[in-house]
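Per reviewer request, we include the raw input and output of the structure prediction for the construct analysed in the revised manuscript.
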Amino acid sequence: MRALVAVKAGEPTDVLRLESRPVPTPKAGQALIRVKATPIHASDLHVLRGRYGFSPGFPAVGGAMECVGRVVALGPGTEAPTVGERVVVAAVPAVPGPPVAGTWQEYLVADTQRLLPVPEHLSDSSVCQLAVNPLTALLLVTRELDVQPDEWLLQTAAGSTVGRLVIQLSRHLGIRTINVVRRRAAVEEIEALGGDEVICTEDEDLLQRVTQTAGPAGVRKAIDCVAGPVGAQVSQALAPGGEVVVYGALSTHRQTDPAALTIPLQARSVIYETKTVRGFWLNRWFGATSPEDALRALSQVRDLVADGVLSIPQGRPFPLEHFPEAVALAEAPAHGTKPLFVFEDGRDGDNG
């Protein structure tokens, strides 16, 4: 089989090689999956650069998150899922936890506890992106912060993939959103998507707008994917006792010095208003939750997508050998389209 392998840590286009490898054999409790489509996330590229929260150990097959495919064989004594079934593989490595197979290859072995059957009518392009960003949005809103109907939820990077999903989910749950964007051009788009209020940091004061919008009660719950000064402003804008969950650091996307990855919080605001700032990382969630609970949450996401509550944009397909172009698209600012590696009949992004 073909596999896209990183021979060492470094810039993806420098260290990735297209290799021929033997098809792996599943053990008890595992299934062999014929991969049909798998996305290229920014986090996948950070893993290859050695700048993420875990290292796969090199050489390593790229892709550390998710894919869709069909079960072609089961390990000894393994009864489910059935051979031929179409499944999403939640390949997010648990931290702490054992290593998992990279998804940028034609076949991979996965624990059956990480497999979720998906309806045939959903496209490969949509479901191969189901286990990371939509799951993150669901967990942040419903579990990490337990936002209730009619409550305000403040979020940064509202135009990001997770940000858009948070808006869709919040509308479904009756939650009101205050959405922070960097560019004035993005405001109309976020409003059309269903964002209740939009703050543009290009020409508006975040703290002032939050106060005007939320009134005396203020905002007690927020999610931040930017960090840096914007993340600090979000904390400052919260009402006393408020909480912000930080799940990304887009403001430091190209930063290579760990000491520069900061959120400059105002001590007086945190202390005297007893605010909480804490992190969320999907890998640690997988490490802390049971396999049964993880599949329950993934099933919720699948049903929300199947019911049309959450919409996952179609990705742009690439064969493995075109990986330099795919990586370039993944890194392009405001590209709006997720590059996908596709195999065989998955190439057009449809099911089959």
